[in-house]
């Protein structure tokens, strides 16, 4: 991708960047190093898309106090210092000012290394392909400092990947490393922040949380033998029906998605084990979403409750939305206790953990949810939605509609629904242009 693109935020920029790095996916010799703090959300999306481990490489740019975004140099782990003499002269930075900035940034570099690593050792990158990610480049001084320090660790290959940078900076780096991926090269280039709608500063807490979140998918081994033998080989001890934390975390590894199944519905022991494992994965592995085999409007009422934006006063009230058979799958004491725990946990957590339904049984309730969402944001769009959804008016329920369309006894509403989906996507874009962000959870 060349030219200009405005990313919604760093996470979206990382997803776009990852598309141009897919040739590195699935390799066990790839490590993603993000330059904190802004590079970490970008690096997380890249690492997750490539199923590669993520770590940080701490670099601090040296910038004049009156122009904090414009780097005249940088320092990195290992005592590496890089300066841009042309920039220093152009901005009239004195040696005294530069020394003062360097001393301050050296202290911050040490603080961040201690805070982000939390006692972990730096990654082993000798002989590996290292993808160095930041949220953008201006002069490239910060990246250059990082590359000089990384060279000392003897990687096999070095790739620089950024969402936005000037073309000449990207070209200079191509003479320095094995591969450079600049997702966009705006012309004229004035500042990294102009490539983002949301360029809020990334916090230390966000960095720590993303570093603790899994990015490497667990690869299943090809095991010979019949299904029963495979189950026996994969089975782990579960005293009292609960898997030990060490066993659980070893099984999960760096996976981003964990599927928890059950041999039968309605069994208390399975529900209790599922709730316990989900809690531990949220607490220790940083998972941020719970998706259940339930209708999405019903589950979204729970989502509002656990995020404390609901009028429901108790988990039992929030679970009252589950009225479709079998109600007892979700309206039971184990789920009530888990929902209340999640609400309490979210009170002190950012970002909060969501609760979502994977099923789409309740067509008419889903229609009402869409219209309610639009009524609060764009009444004209809500009126268009009502007009399109009138196609369903002569059907009393979803099953009747399905039978009628399947057997040619009624008109399909597919065209109207697709038009409405396109309209919703267009509305999202308009909201981004107007407000700089979209309420992702409510939009979902």
Automatic annotation (TrEMBL):
Limits of the Phosphoribosyltransferase domain: 13-183
Superkingdom of source: Bacteria
UniProt-listed Gene3D superfamilies: 3.40.50.2020, EreA-like, domain 2, PRTase-like
Cited InterPro entries: Emycin_Estase, Hydrolase/PRTase-associated, PRTase-like, PRTase_dom
An example Gene Ontology biological process: response to antibiotic
Protein name per Swiss-Prot or TrEMBL: Phosphoribosyltransferase domain-containing protein
Organism per entry: Mycolicibacterium mageritense
């Amino acid at each position: 991708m060349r030219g200009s693109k405005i990313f919604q935020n760093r996470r979206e920029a990382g997803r776009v960047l990852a598309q141009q790095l897919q040739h590195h996916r699935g390799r066990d010799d790839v490590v993603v190093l993000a330059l904190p703090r802004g590079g970490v959300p970008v690096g997380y999306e890249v690492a997750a898309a490539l199923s590669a481990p993520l770590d940080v490489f701490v670099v601090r740019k040296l910038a004049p106090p009156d122009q904090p975004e414009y780097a005249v140099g940088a320092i990195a782990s290992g005592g590496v210092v890089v300066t841009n003499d042309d920039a220093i002269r152009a901005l009239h930075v004195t040696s005294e000012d530069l020394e003062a900035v360097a001393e301050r940034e050296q202290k911050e570099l040490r603080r961040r290394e201690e805070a982000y690593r939390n006692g972990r050792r730096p990654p082993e990158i000798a002989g590996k392909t290292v993808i160095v990610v930041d949220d953008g480049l201006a002069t490239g001084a910060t990246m250059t400092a990082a590359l000089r320090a990384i060279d000392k660790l003897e990687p096999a290959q070095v790739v620089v990947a950024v969402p936005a940078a000037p073309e000449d900076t990207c070209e200079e780096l191509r003479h320095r490393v094995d591969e450079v991926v600049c997702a966009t090269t705006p012309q004229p280039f004035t500042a990294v922040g102009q490539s983002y709608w949301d360029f809020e500063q990334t916090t230390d807490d966000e960095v720590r949380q993303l570093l603790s979140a899994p990015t490497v998918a667990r690869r299943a081994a090809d095991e010979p033998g019949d299904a029963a033998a495979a189950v026996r080989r994969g089975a782990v001890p579960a005293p009292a029906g609960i898997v030990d934390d060490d066993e659980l975390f070893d099984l999960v590894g760096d996976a981003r998605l964990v599927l928890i199944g059950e041999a039968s519905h309605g069994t208390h022991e399975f529900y209790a084990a599922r709730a316990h494992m989900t809690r531990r994965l949220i607490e220790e592995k940083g998972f941020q979403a719970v998706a259940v085999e339930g209708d999405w409007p019903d589950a979204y009422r729970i989502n509002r409750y656990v995020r404390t934006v609901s009028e429901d006063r108790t988990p039992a009230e929030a679970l009252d939305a589950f009225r479709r058979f079998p109600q007892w799958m979700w309206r039971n004491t184990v789920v009530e206790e888990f929902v209340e725990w999640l609400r309490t946990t979210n009170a002190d957590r950012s970002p909060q953990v969501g609760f979502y339904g994977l099923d789409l049984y309740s067509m008419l309730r889903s229609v009402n949810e869409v219209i309610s969402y639009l009524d609060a944001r764009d009444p004209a769009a809500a009126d268009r939605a009502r007009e399109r959804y009138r196609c369903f008016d002569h059907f009393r329920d979803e099953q009747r509609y399905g039978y009628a369309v399947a057997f040619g006894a009624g008109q399909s509403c597919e065209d109207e629904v697709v038009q409405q989906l396109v309209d919703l996507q267009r509305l999202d874009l308009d909201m981004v242009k107007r407000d700089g962000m979209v309420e992702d959870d409510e939009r979902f």
